[in-house]
């Protein structure tokens, strides 16, 4: 068990939190934060939890808002923008009026919503008024529980049946993690046959190393369609943790596409449950590490309903002295007759001191399953590199191109095109194709 | 002989622990087309790779002068920018890197080296389209990954397309004719012939006299066991076609 930061204990002992939150925090501390000895946390940079000031950042003032505004990307066509700064929804920077079904929750309403959208028993999030979840996955939920104890408010999105929406939620962290933390929370419920394009961004403002512990809980109803694009492009000193829990109903289609290229250390936990019949999930993830960055992701998919289908693709590049890890754990439950699971996990080692780990895991409790997985860790292809050099391309660009090529099959799925171009530019910068940033597309 | 573009003197090179080039000498003058023939495994591709600067090849003796400069001290990308082009025997597939992007980046790298501005996007496309027409390539190839899923013959045409766009001073074409159907051989030969010019030189590695009917060489060399064992005019190729290599390599042994 890692040493629990003093400041978290101070919060648990002090008067600043409302009593139910305080007792939740006490329970979290008693159970212990994840440690490197916990199965699914071995590659995460957990020292980022030490010496953090977990106290929630104050509601952003003019200065924080100005900082946040300065890093907002160009508006995304067709998407209404919602901005959350240091865990607080910021109407001044958001679309006005609020899109239908969007609200902010605080106090009792927040607690009630947590109960209402609580996913299944497998990933039941704790709420200030509910005890900690028990069971094997419980430590994987600990940071979600920590968020429940500390998030000042939550952004709630509730789309009525049959509706169609496109939203962009931008989380900006402006505070120095040594002073205050950002605990953003999002609760999403998609009604029957609703369709949502959701773009989620995590950005940093200012050069202070921020600390974030984000929590997203999604409930996707029967026949609904969710296309969720997640971009983590925090600044080079940021510490980032996030938990995403999903429960998908009958016949729904969920497509996730994430790119994580920022932060000094980032850990992403996804706990996904295909509860309904014939629910389908696509999980596409790209992670880029450079310098001494640590990027770790754990994705657990529970196939519970008959015919549940998952396709998972991960492409990670570890350059410099970075560490990039992806652990994809597929569980197929007794009831998931005819389920299918397909994993393609690939990492590229692009630095002599870099580290990459990809780990597919399958846990099957039913005979009638179609499951496949592939996992590789490789290096830049010398023949390809020489071919590019022999055409006059300089080394830096050749390497950047080959890295781009490595993630391209996944990254090219980003839609709409305007977003894909933004991502390509961000990646080109990350891949140091400074010579010709636009050319990579 | 005209001013030499390439001058190789007593070149020895090792790869994978084997001495493959064993005292090879060759001069190629401006405006000339030379053909190199020789048995499998004799060192033809090794020579091409050594000239292009592929890593893993150790030069143990000798010199290579390109337009009066020591070629061997240049990095592969510098050689390319200085006008050396290698058409690969086995062009490499690079999925995810766009074919037209590579063409443009390669051209701009060479232009930058010459102190020229980047090529205008419109002009560039016009030039590429014209060359593709000459190579009878569908424009769809532009948007595909470099050689990705190309057939053997399509890869070879793509090499020649790159060559035509880059207009190198010295082109080394390693078995560009192998894997081509009869019509494609004509197309590729036409492409190569359009590049013939007084200020350029072309070195063709080939196993077949047939190619030399379309691209008539000034000189023909036989490379065996790592060195040039015989040189002659185009009639040498005809003679090789009739008699094989034994009469030469036997004599050289
Ligand atoms: N990396 C390597 N390691 C070991 N041996 C090598 C390596 N590369 C080439 N060789 C050997 O060097 C010799 C010359 O090879 P090279 O490819 O130059 O022949 P070539 O004349 O081009 O033959 P071909 O007509 O079949 O294309 C061969 O015997 C080959 O096996
Ligand atoms: Mg060869």
Write a brief structural summary.
Chain A is α/β, with parallel strands linked by helices and 441 residues long. Chain A has eight helices and 19 strands. Chain A has helices at 6-13, 19-31, 62-71, 107-116, 142-150, 382-389, 395-411, 417-430, and strands at 80-85, 88-89, 102-105, 154-159, 164-173, 185-190, 195-204, 211-220, 225-233, 239-248, 253-260, 265-274, 280-289, 294-303, 309-319, 323-332, 339-350, 355-364, 369-379.
Counting helices, strands and paired strands, the structural category of chain A is alpha/beta
Low-confidence stretches of chain A: 115-122, 433-441
Greatest chain-chain contact: A-B, 27 and 32 residues
Which structural class do you get from the secondary structure elements of chain B? alpha/beta
Structure commentary:
With 441 residues, chain A is of the alpha/beta class. Chain A folds into 2 domains: 269 residues, no CATH class; 57 residues, no CATH class. Chain A is built from 8 helices and 19 strands. In chain A, the strands form 2 sheets. A 10-stranded mixed β-sheet of chain A has the order 2-1-5-7-9-11-13-15-17-19. In chain A, β1 and β2 form a beta hairpin. In chain A, α1 packs antiparallel against α2, α2 packs antiparallel against α5 and α6 packs across α7. The two termini of chain B are 29 Å apart. Chain B is built from 9 helices and 12 strands. Chain B has one domain: P-loop containing nucleotide triphosphate hydrolases (Rossmann fold, 3-Layer(aba) Sandwich), CATH 3.40.50.300. The model of chain B has no long low-confidence stretch (mean pLDDT 94). Chain B is 38% helix and 29% strand. Chain B is an alpha/beta fold and 253 residues long. In chain B, α5 packs parallel to α6. The interface between A and B is medium-sized, with 27 and 32 residues.
């Amino acid at each position: 068990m890692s040493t629990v930061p003093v400041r978290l204990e101070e919060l648990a002992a002090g008067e600043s939190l409302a009593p139910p939150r305080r007792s939740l925090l006490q329970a979290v501390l008693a159970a212990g934060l994840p440690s490197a000895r916990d199965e699914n946390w071995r590659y995460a940079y957990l020292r980022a939890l030490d010496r953090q000031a977990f106290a929630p950042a104050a509601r952003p003032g003019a200065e924080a808002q100005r900082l946040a505004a300065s890093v907002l990307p160009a508006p995304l066509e067709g998407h209404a923008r919602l901005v959350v700064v240091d865990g607080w929804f910021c109407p001044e920077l958001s679309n006005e009026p609020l899109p239908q079904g969007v609200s902010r929750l605080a106090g009792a309403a927040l607690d009630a919503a947590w109960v209402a959208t609580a996913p299944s028993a497998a990933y039941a999030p704790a709420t200030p008024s509910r005890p900690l979840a028990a069971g094997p996955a419980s430590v994987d939920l600990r940071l979600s529980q920590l968020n429940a104890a500390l998030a000042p408010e939550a952004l709630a999105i509730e789309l009525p049946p049959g509706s169609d929406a496109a939203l962009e939620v931008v989380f900006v962290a402006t505070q120095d993690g040594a002073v205050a933390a950002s605990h953003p929370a999002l609760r999403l419920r998609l009604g029957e046959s609703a369709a949502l394009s959701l773009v989620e961004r995590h950005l940093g403002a200012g050069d202070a190393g921020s600390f974030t512990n984000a929590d997203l809980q999604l409930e996707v109803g029967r026949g609904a369609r969710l296309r969720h694009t997640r971009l983590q492009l925090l600044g080079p000193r940021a510490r980032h943790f996030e938990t995403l829990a999903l429960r998908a109903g009958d016949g729904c289609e969920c497509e996730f596409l994430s790119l994580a290229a920022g932060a000094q250390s980032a850990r992403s936990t996804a706990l996904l449950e295909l509860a309904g019949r014939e629910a389908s999930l696509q999980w596409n993830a790209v992670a880029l590490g450079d310098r001494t960055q640590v990027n770790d992701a754990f994705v657990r998919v529970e196939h519970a309903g008959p015919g549940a289908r998952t396709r998972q693709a991960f492409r990670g590049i570890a350059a410099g002295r970075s560490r990039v890890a992806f652990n994809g754990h597929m569980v197929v439950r007794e009831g998931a007759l005819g389920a299918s699971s397909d994993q393609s996990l690939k990492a590229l080692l692009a630095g002599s001191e870099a580290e990459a780990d990809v780990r597919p895991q399958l846990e099957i409790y039913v005979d009638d399953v179609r499951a496949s997985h592939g996992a590789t860790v490789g290096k830049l292809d010398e023949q390809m590199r020489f071919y590019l050099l022999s055409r006059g391309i300089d080394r830096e660009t050749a390497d950047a191109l080959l890295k781009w090529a490595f993630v391209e099959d996944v990254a090219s799925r980003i839609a709409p095109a305007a977003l894909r171009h933004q991502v390509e530019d961000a990646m080109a910068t990350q891949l140091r194709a400074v010579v010709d940033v636009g050319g990579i597309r | 002989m005209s001013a030499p573009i390439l001058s190789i003197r007593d070149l020895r090179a090792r790869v994978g622990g084997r001495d493959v080039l064993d005292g090879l000498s060759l001069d190629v003058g401006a405006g000339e087309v030379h053909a190199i023939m020789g048995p499998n495994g004799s060192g033809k591709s090794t020579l091409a790779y050594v000239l292009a600067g592929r890593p893993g090849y150790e030069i143990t003796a000798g010199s290579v002068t390109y337009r009066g400069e020591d070629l061997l001290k240049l990095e592969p990308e510098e050689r390319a920018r200085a006008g050396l082009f290698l058409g690969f025997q086995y062009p490499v597939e690079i999925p995810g890197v766009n074919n037209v992007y590579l063409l443009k980046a390669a051209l701009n790298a060479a232009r930058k080296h010459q102190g020229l501005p980047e090529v205008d996007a419109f002009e560039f496309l016009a030039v590429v389209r014209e060359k593709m027409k000459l190579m009878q390539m569908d424009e769809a190839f532009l948007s595909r990954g470099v050689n990705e899923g190309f057939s053997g013959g399509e890869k070879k045409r793509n090499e020649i397309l790159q060559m035509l766009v880059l207009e190198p001073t010295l082109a080394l074409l390693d078995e560009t004719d192998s894997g081509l159907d009869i019509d494609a051989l004509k197309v590729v030969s036409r492409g190569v012939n359009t590049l013939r010019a007084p200020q350029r030189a072309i070195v063709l590695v080939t196993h077949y006299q047939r190619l030399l009917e379309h691209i008539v060489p000034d000189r023909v060399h036989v490379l065996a066991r790592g060195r040039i064992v015989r040189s002659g005019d185009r009639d040498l190729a005809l003679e090789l076609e009739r008699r094989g290599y034994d009469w030469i390599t036997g004599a050289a042994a």
